[in-house]
Amino acid sequence: MNILTNIAPVKITLTVLAAMMLCLTNMVGAQVLVPSGSFHSVMPEIKGEPVEVESFYLDSTAVTNQQYNEFLQDHENWKPENVPSIFAYKGYLKNWENTNADDIVNPNQPVTSVSWYAANAYCQSAGGRLPTLNEWEYSAQLMDFESTADAKEFANRLMSWYSTFDNENMGAVGSTGIENRYGIKDQFGLIMEWVEDFKPVVADDLSLDCGTVGRMQKLGNAYSYAASIRYITRMSFSPKSTNSTVGFRCAYNVETMEDKKSNL
Amino acid sequence: MKSIKLTFTLVIGLLLTGITSLSYAQTSEYEIDGKTFGMPEAEVFTEDYDGPPVVGDHLSMLPNLEPLDYEGNKTHEVRIDIIAQEIEVADGVKYEAWTFGGTVPGPVLHVREGDRITFTMKNRSDEAVTITQPTKEGSPFMQQVAQNNYMKAQEATMPMPHSMDFHAGTVAKDDKWRTIAPGQSIKFDWVANYAGSYIYHCGTPSVLMHTAMGQHGVVVVSPKDGYDTGYEVDKEYVIVQSEYYLKKGPGDLYQYDYEGAQNRNPSHVVFNGHQTILHDQPLKANAGDRVRFHVSNNGPSGTSSFHVIGGIFDRVWLEGHPFNEMRGMQTVLLGASSSATIDMIVPEEGKYILIDHEFADAEKGATGTLKAGPREK
């Protein structure tokens, strides 16, 4: 069943469905079309109205250490020794010992300890951008469960995970076995991820206290509780934040990807 | 083109930074009934600080209370950093706690009514910090933990945004209790306007989760003229009751039990953060001693019916305020974030059990021992 119970059915047009089929054979790092649709955000947007999301492409896995290292070879100004302090806290790439080595440690693990600025720069160079908060959440919540019990069990697991990340033994991208119905992997269970508008303007109006969690319980299930923790945690970041549990993946506009394909 | 894009990104980033710091009006100090209000705006900043996470002369580890070795009022420079720490809270039950200063509960701060506190806190949750190396720096708390590491604290990291809410402070929460991201620090002043024992805790949502994960402690504000008793107490101890909501994780460690926390079904209810610590290391006194307990129920969600088996509370000051005096109480009922200062005469040599008389809590750990030696006077 769809965990987003009590929600208007997700709208999928036939054309994007066709495009989607082409992308189902994705591998690690592939860009997958997430068809347009709608979802219920935990944010106090238009009351009761689902949030509409246009089609977009999203990396099926988070950006890895190896991918980020390749980016650094072409963009020396983002190497730790060169990054100005206005773009990142001191912890930037702190888990990396060497940014020049070919044999980078844990090449297939997601890159973390990168600031929002750095994540932006990476995605720009990849011809994309960070996903918006709504795009990321919409994709993350496109998960199917066998039963309500399964959904509840998943939500409980999610809460435990948000209390204790095992960042000492982080897995490779694609290793969590968690993916949405289009094959976008690891939006949970591996790292937290930057989004373009991680601190929406409405954040300032929300009084961040216990009541905030309460009023974010719109979906009426434990899943939305985890979502509220995620939203609040993300809203509290600085764009310079470099957390050992925060990485990113890139999104791409549909037109950009179509241009790319027609140029091939 | 690239540089234009980068500049645009920077501007957006700065806007995002700015959203949380829309100008707060600088209020000026004023007094009502001898109490001081109107603290300067809190400062959020970054610093290279990597020293002891707890700094200040009057910070101690439970059940100790540092004596106030000064006359009148003073300004305390206090630092309590936020660090993650793997701790043991019952035999074989370890989890990665979110802490103030490295233990659960955090350090006890002792000040006098009317004192001013200049408080600094760095969110070092993404930094491995060791609290068990002997050090003369910092505070009595650091030395006491190094000498008596009953939680077997080991460094850990778990980057999360956090904040500090001192119940002993009277300020605007959207300024002083602001949430700071890992790597950020906050500094603000507050004045201890009211005598009593007050909890402090993280106020970042989910507050239930943050406090259940370990982010709470106590400030003891001694009345400026003391309690009107005509006697000195022989012993003084601080007791904090709190709940843990833990379940076994995939490895050796325990994890947060979301359902248990939601349904108020704690895995452990404890005194001073550990299921058996007040039996393993009993409080000590002698027959005929007057013992003062500063008891705080830090919750997050339960109540405490605090009782001592074999004793009657001679005097009780609810919330620790000298005006709230009661006499001859068998049990003091404390709601979540409520406290009492309790004087008890120890009747005779023997064993006295401190207990939450809500027995479901007692059986989950909320008990301790006061061991009384023979009468000396």
Account of the protein in words:
The complex is a heterodimer of chains A (264) and B (377). Chain A is 32% helix and 8% strand. Chain A has eight helices and seven strands; from the N terminus they run αββββααααβααββα. In chain A, strands 1-4-7 form a three-stranded antiparallel β-sheet. In chain A, α5 packs parallel to α7. Chain A is globular. Chain B folds into two domains: 44-222, Sandwich (Immunoglobulin-like), CATH 2.60.40; 235-373, Cupredoxins -  blue copper proteins (Immunoglobulin-like, Sandwich), CATH 2.60.40. Helices cover 13% and strands 40% of the residues of chain B. Chain B is globular, with a radius of gyration of 21 Å. The chains are: A mainly alpha (264), B mainly beta (377). At the A-B interface, α3, α5, α6 and α7 of A face α1, α4 and α5 of B.
SSE topology:
The complex is a heterodimer of chains A (264) and B (377).
Chain A: H1 14-23, E1 31-34, E2 37-39, E3 51-53, E4 56-59, H2 65-74, H3 116-125, H4 133-140, H5 148-163, E5 192-193, H6 210-215, H7 222-235, E6 246-247, E7 251-252, H8 254-263
Parallel strand pairs in A: 5-6
Antiparallel strand pairs in A: 1-4, 2-3, 4-7
Chain B: H1 2-19, E1 30-32, E2 35-37, E3 43-45, E4 54-55, E5 59-60, E6 75-80, E7 82-90, E8 93-100, E9 108-112, E10 116-122, H2 140-147, E11 154-156, E12 165-166, H3 173-176, E13 185-191, E14 196-201, H4 207-212, E15 216-222, E16 235-244, E17 246-248, E18 254-256, H5 258-262, E19 268-271, H6 277-280, E20 283-286, E21 290-299, E22 304-309, E23 313-318, E24 325-329, E25 331-334, E26 338-345, E27 350-356, H7 359-362, E28 367-373
Parallel strand pairs in B: 6-10, 9-15, 16-21, 20-28
Antiparallel strand pairs in B: 1-2, 3-13, 4-6, 5-9, 7-8, 7-11, 10-13, 12-14, 14-15, 16-19, 17-18, 21-26, 22-25, 22-27, 23-24, 23-26, 27-28
